[in-house]
Prior knowledge:
This protein is α/β, with parallel strands linked by helices. It is 50% helix and 15% strand. The protein folds into two domains: 2-165, Rossmann fold; 173-266, N-(1-d-carboxylethyl)-l-norvaline Dehydrogenase, domain 2, CATH 1.10.1040. It has helices spanning 16-25, 37-45, 54-60, 71-78, 84-87, 102-113, 127-132, 144-154, 169-197, 202-210, 217-220, 235-249, 254-266, and strands at 6-10, 29-33, 49-50, 63-66, 93-96, 118-125, 136-141, 158-165. Helix 6 links the parallel strand 5 (93-96) and strand 6. The longest helix is centred in the last third of the chain and has 29 residues, at 169-197.
Amino acid sequence: MTASIKVGYIGLGSMGKPWATNVAQDGFDLMVYDVRPEPVAELVKLGAKAGHSPREVAAYADIVGITVSGLEAVNAVLDGPDGLLSGAHAGLVVAIQTSLHPSDMEAAAKRIAARGAHALDAQMSGGWTSAVKRKTCLMVGGDVTLLERCRPVFETTASHIFHVGDVGKGAVAKVAQNLITAQYLMAASEGFRLAGKGGVDLGVFQEIVRASSAQSWVADDYLSFWGNRPRPWMYYSVLEEALDLGRTFDVALPGAATASQALSHSLTGNPAGD
Length: 274
C-alpha cells in the first residue's frame, strides 16, 4: 500500500528531515526538495527521489508535506513559476505542517484550492526528538476524508493524530497548546530562578519538581533543555499570536499577557537566572 502513495516533502530542516526520513524508511514512493543539496542527498541514499523545485514535487506526488519555517518561506514554496501551485493538480493534498497564524493558514488553503488541490492544516508538537522517535502529536484542520487519505503517511512519525475541525483550526489548537507551554515555561523559569538564588542545588530541585505536584513536561527537562535553549525567547511570537486570537475571539488571556512580560525578565539562557 505504501509504495502506491506518492509522497513529497518540501523543507528538510530540523522537523522536515526526520519526517521525510521516516516516510522513506517505511517504504513510500518519496520525492524531496530543499534549497540545500546536503539533506536531499541524504534522503536519496534512503531511496527518495530528488526534486529540483516545489513545482516538480507537486506534479509528482499525491500528498505533499510542507515543513519550512514561517509564512515567508511557505509563500516562497507556493508561489512563482517553480512554486508548488504551478505544479498542483486535481486531487493533490498539501499538508502545511509549518506553524502559521490561522488567518494565514486559511489564506494559503484558498490559494491551493483555486488550483484544484486540497489543503490540510497539520500542526506539529513535540519537536525534533519526538519526530525522530515517531512520537509527534498532530493537530489537523481540514476535511476528515483528506486526513484519512494522509493517515498512513502521518503515522510514520505521529503517535497521536487529532482532527480538530476545518482548515485553520489546527493552527488555533497549536497556538492554544503553545500558550499553555509558554506559561509552564514561565512557572519553571521563575521557580528554578528562585531556588538557585536561594542556594538550593538545582539538580536536587529538578528531582523535587519531577516528584511533586509541580511536575510538567517542561519542568522535567528544564535544566537539560528548556532553561538552556539556543533561542530562549521563541515564545514571544507564540504569545503575540495567542493575544491576537484572544482579541479576535473576545477571550481574556491575562496569563498570556503576564507571561509575555515575565518571561522577558526570567529567561536568560541560564537556569539559575544569573
